[in-house]
Amino acid sequence: LGNLNEFPVYAFLGKKNVSFGNMGTLSPFSQSVVWHYFAPLAEGGGIGYDGGFIHVSATALNGSRGIRVADSEVRGELNNFAANGTLTVLESRDVDFTIGGGYLHGTIYDGPAAEHLDPGVTGPMNGAWDANANLRLGVFHLAGEYVSTLNEWPVTGHQVIAYRAEGALDLSPVWLSASWSEGIQGAKTDEFQFNQQLVLGCEYRMAPNVKFSLEYIRSLGFAPLINITTVSDKSVRQSTFLLGVTVAI
User: Strand order of the sheet with strand 78-91?
Assistant: First the structure.
């Protein structure tokens, strides 16, 4: 709700991707491990300020288990929240540089059992913080993001951490990218220590609304959320070729 051409403050209400971190990627199609670990989707409302070079927002979230990542004890109460901000340090024809950060007060990494949907699996609030940056130097793009819980996840006895480091080359209509991302939730001796992902991508934009993409994805480690302490295997390796077509109508 609002008109940024008239006034820099706006409001929002409903189910949406919670404004927390960046959660983006330079890859044509596949999300990074950061998104899989920490991108929240939940019900709530909030306000934001977009002054051009600075964009900040605050969100009050409906309690209990969110659709992704967000969690707190009691549903029907605004007992969880998120805050996020982005600062455009430099914006010019040849160089763009932005930095950002965010905080989510309650995450699913709070309970004694690894569980997606059960609202009864909860515990003391375990928040998460995010730091991210994007840089463009002509046709070169760089992006990075780091997210961590404040406390250990009771299931693994370790903080949950995810990060990504990415680069891309914009040779319009061709886009070439490389992305490395990792999620860490255990010690070096644990089979559930990590999930790692390398994505090498190529995208061809045939028209403004049509693009084709090809990715090679190398996954290392198998540590699923469900039964993470019993079925994980860090020796697992998987290679995937992914062909995609995107058409906007």
Answer: 9-17, 41-50, 54-62, 78-91, 95-104, 128-137, 140-153, 158-171, 174-184, 194-207, 210-222, 233-247
Q: Over pLDDT 70: what percentage of the chain?
A: 100
The burial of 40, by beta-carbon neighbours within 10 Å (0-12 exposed, 13-18 middle, 19 or more buried), is given as buried
Q: What's the CA gap between 171 and 227, in Å, rounded?
A: 44
CA–CA distance, 56 with 64 (Å, rounded to integer): 25
pLDDT per position as a tens digit, 25-81? 999 999 999 999 999 999 999 999 999 899 999 999 998 888 889 998 888 889 999
Q: In this structure, what DSSP letter does residue 70 have? A: B
Among 179, 162, 116, 169, residue whose Cα is nearest residue 141: 169
Where do the structural domains in the chain lie, given as residue ranges?
A: 9-183
Residue type, 170: D
| Residue 216 bridge partners (DSSP) | 200, 241
**Dihedral pair phi/psi, residue 194, rounded to 5°:** -150, 160
pTM for the whole structure: 0.94
Q: How confident is the model at residue 225 (pLDDT cuts 50, 70, 90)?
A: confident
3-state class of 201 per DSSP? strand
